[in-house]
# Entry
Amino acid sequence: MNTALLSHHDCLDHVNPPGHPEQVARLRAINAVLEAEEFAYLVREDAPLATDAMIDRVHPAPHRERLEAMVPNEGWRPIDGDTFVGPATLRAARRAAGAVCRAVDMVMAGEVRNAFCAVRPPGHHAELERAMGFCYFGTVAIGALHAIHEHGLSRVAIMDFDVHHGNGTQDLLWGEPRVRFASTHQMPLYPGSGAADEVGLHGQIVNVPLPPGSSGGVFRAGMLGRVLPELDDFAPELVLISAGFDAHARDPLANLNLTEDDFAWATARLCDLADKHCGGRVVSTLEGGYDLSALASSVAAHVRVLMDRGYG
Ligand SMILES: [Zn+2]
# Structure
C-alpha cells in the first residue's frame, strides 16, 4: 500500500488576472516541495478529465453548459469580482474533479491506501448553479457522488479544514444523507455561511465556526469536540478531505493562526478515523492556501502524514 499524488499540467494553465491570490505559483510551489527526496515514493499519476456525467451528478447540466459557453479565446470573462473564466479554466477544473474521482477509484481498488490531489482551481465554493470564490465545479462533492454511484458506497465523510466555509459543498450535498460533511472555518469571513445551526436536511452537516484569531488549540478542540465524534458516529466507508491551508497564521486572506503541525495533526486524526472504519481510505484534495511558502510547507506536512499512514 502507498500514497498516490494526482495532478496535471493543465492545472498550471488556468491563469487568473494579475495580482489574483489564486495564482499558478501556488501549484508550482507545491510541485517544487514535493520534488524532495522524501516524496520520491509517491505513486504519481496524471489526473484524467472529469466527464460530463461526473459533473452533472452534482450540478444541473445548465451550470456546466453556461460556463462552457463563457470560455474566451483569450483574456477573461468575469463571473464575480474574484472569479474569472479564462481559456484554460474549465479544463483545469475538469482535471481537479477528475483527479478526485480517479483517486477514489485507486483507493477503492486497493491500489493505494490514500491519495492527495495537487490541483487547482479549488472547488468548495461552487454552488449548484453558481461558480464563485475562485471555484467552478464542486470537486470534492463530485468525488463523493462518484464513490457512491461507481463503488456502491452509502457513507462518505468529507472534512473541510479550509479557513473559508465550504458553502458550495454544503449546497451540493444539503439533501444527501449518504454524505456527512464537516467544516471548520473562520467566522465571520467570506462567504458568510457555515453557522452551527446549518445542519442539512438530514442533520448530516456539521459546521464548526471559529472566531478570528483562533489558535491551533481552538481548532483542535473543535475537531475533537464536534467533527471527529460526528464522523466517527457515521462510520464512513471513505474519508475525503477538502484540504485548504489558508487557516495558516501567515495566510493573507484570513485570520486564524494554525501551523504546519496543526495540519499534520488533523491529517493524522482523519487517518485514524479511516483506519478505524474503512481500511485507511483517505482522498484529499487541495482547496485554498495563499501564502506560497506556508502553502508549500503545509502541503508537505499533510502529505508526509498521508505517506506515513499509507504504509499502515
Ligand atoms: Zn479558503
User: Anything to note?
Assistant: The chain has a mean pLDDT of 98. The two ends are 8 Å apart (CA to CA). Residues 162-164, 244, 246, 287-288 surround zinc ion (CB under 6 Å).
